[in-house]
Design brief:
By secondary structure, this protein is α+β, with helices and mostly antiparallel strands. It has one domain (about 1-25, about 40-75). Helix content is about 35%, strand content about 10%. It contains 2 helices and 2 strands, in the order H-H-E-E. Strands 1-2 form a two-stranded antiparallel sheet. The longest helix is centred in the first third of the chain and has 25 residues, at about 1-25. The radius of gyration is 23 Å and the shape is elongated.
Amino acid sequence: MRSIAGRVIAISAIAIAFVPLTWETSAQPTKSGDGEQPACAAIKIEEMCRARDDCVWVPAAMTFQPRPAHCRAKPVGPPGIFTK
């Protein structure tokens, strides 16, 4: 019984030691420069989405679970896939 309680206490101590590390990384400020454009997911207008090189417009899906049309970031793959 003692060894189980000791293990539980040791694991709890290790978990508590790592909690501040996760808080520190999540509390870091986000980059918001002066000339930055909004992320693709925030764009709701098709023309604005198509005007950006890093975004793709996804048309609405009228299946059993309808989804509205939206803008999405282009997938990042090996170099040369999305080059002209």
